[in-house]
Design brief:
The protein is of the alpha+beta class. It is 20% helix and 43% strand. It has a domain of 102 residues: Diaminopimelate Epimerase, Chain A, domain 1 (Roll).
């Protein structure tokens, strides 16, 4: 049985969001299988076409509500994608799996906090984003604190 999914667009990127149980029913459970699935389904000519897939599941971490894994079209697994996780949050909201004021999503990069500002506008709080200034010619690193809001277009 082919897994069911929904495609979301978030700030210029489109992500296929799929629940891990759907993949399990299709026999796709191991990381190499997930990467291969991402490569095939993200292909814009022969698949659904996407910038990546977000696989959502219940969290095993008591500090998070759900867990999300992000896979790129090249089959690699990302630590975090702001747009991909916002699409995952929109999916959880759309499916009424997230109904609380805040959503705590576990990622490979830690737990991230999401809130709904208004219908289909999801805010992610990035509490300690570190950037290397050396990569742009400076001599030291800087700590940035930021919160971003982006509209998620309903497809």
């Amino acid at each position: 049985m082919a897994p069911r999914f929904i495609k979301f667009h978030g700030f210029g990127n489109d992500y296929i969001v799929i629940e891990s149980r759907e993949l399990g029913l299709a026999g796709i459970t191991a990381t190499p299988q997930l990467g291969d699935f991402a490569r095939r389904i993200c292909n814009r000519h022969y698949g659904a076409g996407a910038d990546g897939i977000a696989v959502v599941s219940p969290s095993e971490d008591p500090g998070a509500d759900f867990h999300v894994r992000i896979f790129n079209p090249d089959a690699s697994e990302a630590s975090l994608s702001g747009n991909g996780t916002r699409c995952a949050a929109a999916y959880l909201y759309y499916k009424k799996l997230w109904t609380a004021e805040e959503l705590r999503l576990s990622t490979r990069a830690g737990i991230k906090l999401y809130t709904i500002r208004e219908r289909w506008e999801i805010r992610i709080a990035v509490s300690s984003l570190t950037t290397s200034l050396r990569s742009i010619g400076a001599e030291s690193a800087a700590q940035l604190k930021t919160t971003n809001s982006f509209r998620i277009a309903q497809m």
